[in-house]
Write a structure and sequence with these properties.
493 residues, mainly alpha, 0% strand, single chain
Length: 493
């Protein structure tokens, strides 16, 4: 998926994945922290609603991790050993954290520099509300397929699409679902995506054999999603009328330089991603290009002195851009970004990784996964078990790479034992591990999407039709045994 994490993440996984019997943990032990987490999250949502990810969920994840550690101590494990293991595992959150900070800076400078306002302007003038959701999904699919990164797609085109949806009076939740659906289709099918390379590597499959096999589940899910988005567009009555639209266009023109060349930072970011530059430097370069555009094309306020302008831009980078057009709706639309506004998301990811690390180091995660494996006897049950494991890893371990590596390692022998070609395994772990990660609020992907698009995970989740359909289609294929390749028909590399 996202190209934000380096090659070290491809080695992530439980150290005792094959030999977890060393840990004296019962199934009841393993389920206790999960039960505590489930109850805590239920109460968190009940008491705090959409604000549950701004503190309450973090506390529950921390407490659930402590419950897992107490179970480990009860089973004779050393606190120091578990603590060191958790800290070592937290490396998975470092790269996403710095990328989130960079994205916050980029959003602020791109708004102030006129990049995002230009994209919104063209979106308002070119896209009809009736086709907007489907168009947003398709555009994000093409962009993500081209560059291999759902994160970059959401942080650039996605941000503008959300702004355009607000300007047209459309639902930002449905728009976010369309953005994520398209972004994950492109990410899943792009040979430049790191997860598209990681899944076949774990399963022992050639990259292009893996991509060809994925088309049977991925394209039907995209087509169905586009149809649903088209229907939703046709049934939607925009909240904005033509007068509101004209006012917004006039405000954009009067407050920002609007021109085709204002899209240069966006094209630069796509070029850097296409050249496979790591996400952090690519996003920082794009962000500082936005600063250049502020100096060249936009006004930074009433002050004309260079030191005052520098201070305004500096503050904007950490606190976000505050629009002052005089129109409340427009100011809400164009205010955002800033590194500081990403800190809550980073806190959420840290707490989630703490919980996942505690479950892994105490052997409780592997215990649960082994219990699932033992009940897989048929082709359909193996595929369903793999999908449940992938989704569970996204929930418990809170990292997409864990949701690919753990099931890939665990089920490889089981697929071979049931005469199933490894290309089936690589497809299944992408059908579930890759695409369900943005549906979990504390997963690195879910936290990133919510922070970048400004829509809470649980709000956009019902509209991520592509992501929701992928596991269902994969299980259905397993049940009817459609496009399930036997071992002897495995294509040559």
């Amino acid at each position: 998926m996202n190209d934000q994490q380096n090659k070290d993440h491809k080695n992530i996984g439980p150290k005792n994945i094959a030999g977890s019997d060393e840990v004296n943990a019962s199934l009841l032990d393993a389920l206790l922290p999960l039960a505590f987490l489930a109850l805590g999250l239920f109460l968190s949502v009940r008491f705090y609603g959409e604000d549950s990810s701004y503190g309450p969920n973090q506390i529950i994840l921390l407490l659930s991790g402590c419950v897992a550690l107490l179970v480990g101590m009860k089973n004779g494990q050393s606190w120091r050993d578990m603590e060191q293991g958790i800290y070592h595992g937290m490396i998975v959150v470092f790269a996403p954290s710095f990328i989130l900070l960079a994205v916050g800076i980029m959003i602020a400078t791109w708004i102030a520099g006129g990049v995002v306002p230009t994209m919104i302007y063209y979106g308002l003038t070119l896209l009809s509300p009736t086709v907007f959701y489907a168009a947003a999904c398709l555009v994000c699919a093409i962009v993500s397929l081209s560059i291999g990164s759902s994160w970059t797609t959401a942080a650039s085109v996605g941000v503008a699409m959300i702004g355009t949806a607000n300007g047209l009076g459309l639902s930002p939740a449905i728009c976010a679902g369309a953005i994520i659906s398209g972004a994950y289709f492109g990410d899943k099918m792009s040979p430049m995506s790191d997860t598209t390379n990681l899944a076949p590597a774990v399963a022992g499959v050639d990259l292009f054999s893996h991509i060809r096999h994925m088309t049977w589940t991925t394209f039907p899910a995209l087509i169905i999603s586009l149809i649903i988005f088209m229907v939703l567009g046709l049934l939607t009555t925009p909240a904005s009328d033509s007068n509101d639209l004209e006012l917004m266009l006039a405000l954009l023109e009067s407050n920002f330089t609007i021109a085709w060349y204002m899209l240069a930072p966006l094209l630069l970011l796509f070029f850097l991603a296409w050249k496979k530059m790591p996400a952090l430097p690519a996003i920082l370069i794009a962000a500082f290009t936005g600063i250049l555009f502020i100096w060249l094309f936009q006004s930074t306020g009433d002050s004309t002195g260079s030191s005052e302008q520098l201070q305004i831009i500096w503050s904007m980078m950490f606190a976000g851009y505050e629009s002052s057009t005089g129109n409340a709706n427009m100011d809400d639309l164009l205010s955002g970004g800033g590194a500081a506004n990403m800190l809550n998301t980073i806190w959420l990811m840290l707490c989630a990784i703490f919980f996942g690390g505690a479950m892994e180091q105490t052997g409780l995660l592997v215990k649960i996964l082994h219990e699932i494996m033992q009940r897989a006897k048929t082709t359909a049950s193996i595929i369903a078990s793999t999908i449940v494991t992938c989704i569970g890893a996204n929930i418990i371990a809170a990292d997409q790479y864990m949701a690919i590596v753990i099931p890939g390692r665990m089920y490889k022998v089981a697929f071979q034992h049931h005469n199933l070609a490894p290309v089936n395994l690589s497809r299944v772990i992408e059908d579930a591990g890759t695409v369900t990660s943005p549906l979990v609020p504390w997963n690195t992907c879910g936290a990133f999407m919510a922070a970048s698009l400004g829509v809470p995970t649980m709000v956009y989740l019902p509209f991520c039709f592509f992501n929701l359909l992928m596991p269902v289609i994969s299980v259905f294929y397993g049940i009817i045994h459609f496009k399930i390749l036997p071992l002897e028909e495995m294509p040559a590399h």
